[in-house]
Amino acid sequence: MAQNGGMPDASADPTSVPTTMCALVIDRTGSADELHLADLPVPIPVLDELLVKVNAAGINPIDAKTRAGKGVAAAITTWPAVLGGDFSGVVARVPYADFPLQPGDEVYGMAHFPRTTGTYAEYLPVSSLSVARKPSNLSHVEAAAVPLAALTAWGAVVDVAKAAPGQRMLIHAGSGGVGHFAVQFARVFGAHVTATGSARNLDFLRELGADEVIDYTSERFEDDVSGLDTVIDLIGNVHDDTGSRSLGVLRPGGLLVNVPSGSWPTMAAEAAAAGIRGTTYKVAPDARRLQLITALIEDGSVRVHVDRIFEIADGAEAHRVLEEGHTRGKIVLRVS
Ligand SMILES: NC(=O)c1ccc[n+]([C@@H]2O[C@H](COP(=O)([O-])OP(=O)(O)OC[C@H]3O[C@@H](n4cnc5c(N)ncnc54)[C@H](OP(=O)(O)O)[C@@H]3O)[C@@H](O)[C@H]2O)c1
After folding, report:
1. Please, what CATH class does the domain formed by 2-146+304-334 belong to?
2. CB 3.0-4.6 Å disulfide test: which of 233, 251, 263, 295 passes with 238?
3. What is the pLDDT of residue 263?
4. 8 Cα: distance to centroid of ligand 1 (angstroms)
5. What's the rounded Cα separation, in Å, for the pair 271 and 333?
6. pLDDT tens per residue, range 191-202
7. Which pLDDT belongs to residue 277?
8. pLDDT greater than 70 at residue 4
9. Which CATH number fits domain 149-280: 3.40.50.150, 1.10.10.10, 3.40.50.300, 3.40.50.720?
């Protein structure tokens, strides 16, 4: 163990846990300016929880929506609040001696924020059901970009839409955090994929495996595709009625999976009226599914794209960039 004047050096040994930690917090909801660094007590894990020393935290739109007072803000009960769902780091404490993961192991996962504290902090207590071993071929920064977005894409494309050979699928926003995994999962499971994005992302979409691409800034997607089996809608009606317009490109009885459900509250009624099966989808922390995703990453079938990396002190700027809505892949905070 590294020594520091005879005392354990907590910065060198991830399993040596201090009593306080640095976190990026908000004292109230509002603009990105509300994000600031603070010293907080290191959380105490309970029951099956591990304590993870967080190396990197992925940023997701739900973080910014919540910070702004929407998203899951109404469920925050502890202030200052630590935001964030995605983490990659090193196990510092385990629930019992013979637990399958051990102190020092590299892990990643999705925290159940806001039921537990978020991941923009040096230490995270997290349920054993939410933690998987970090893919061996990814850095912590890359791994932190995976869980929430990839679990969402898996849920929508594999669990709900049941991607399969012969299935014709349209994926809106295929270049974003969820979308770039959705395109790859759909391709892995054999679906024929059309993906939308702006001109600068069309080559990226093709590299991910999209069979056809549509520039939503210059084309109306309904002019290019029709009679599809499935639409994975990662835009909803927040932009140019993308969700409502998608109903018209599906075959009778086709399936629309509306992921950002808040932007389109009339989805179910509109889908029923159009003879389409419409559903929303909500992601959940899930170590078992994350292990399936890990395997695809480690065998090279699926990759993660990190667009920008910010130091935790620059978290406000990271949120501003995310809120522009044009991230290619993911934005990640380097925490410790
Ligand atoms: N229900 C759930 O459990 C759940 C889970 C995760 C995410 N979500 C929601 O799903 C949505 C997508 O999340 P995300 O993380 O993928 O977002 P994101 O990474 O911020 O998405 C950014 C991408 O969207 C593309 N884009 C923007 N406007 C578009 C349009 N009109 N048509 C096609 N592409 C467009 C951008 O491409 P260009 O730069 O080329 O425009 C960019 O690559 C968010 O609303 C998020 O809150 C819900």
Report:
1. alpha beta
2. 263
3. 85
4. 44
5. 38
6. 999 999 999 999
7. 98
8. no
9. 3.40.50.720
Contact 276, 253 (CB under 8 A): yes
Q: How far is the CA of 179 from the centre of ligand 1 (A)?
A: 7
Query: 174 CB under 6 A from ligand 1?
Result: no
- Mean pLDDT of all residues in 36-65: 98
pLDDT of residue 328: 98
| Ligand 1 neighbourhood includes 325 CB (under 6 angstroms) | yes
Answer for the pair 151, 293: CB distance below 8 angstroms, yes or no. Answer: yes
Instruction: Provide the token pair at 89.
Output: 């780091």
260 lines ligand 1 (CB under 6 A): yes
Q: How far apart are the C-alpha atoms of 164 and 157, rounded to whole Å?
A: 10
Reply yes or no on whether the pLDDT at 10 is more than 60. no
CB of 277 within 6 A of ligand 1: the answer is: no
Q: Where are the CATH 3.90.180.10 domain residues in the chain? A: 2-146+304-334
Q: Is 239 in the pocket of ligand 1 (CB under 6 A)?
A: yes
- The owner of tokens 């839409």 is 161
Average pLDDT of the residues in 20-39: 98
Measured CA to CA, the distance from residue 228 to residue 247 in angstroms comes to: 10
